[in-house]
Amino acid sequence: MTADLHVLCAGYAHDRVASTVVLIQDEGRAVVVDPGMVSHRSKILDPLASLGVDPAEVGDVVFSHHHPDHTLNAALFERARFHDFWAIYEADTWTDRAADGFRLSGSVWLMATPGHTAEDITTLVETSDGLVACTHLWWSEQGPVQDPLAEDQAALEHSRARILELEPSLIVPGHGAPFRPDRARVS
Question: How far is Cα 62 from Cα 34, in angstroms, rounded to an integer?
Answer without folding.
Answer: 6
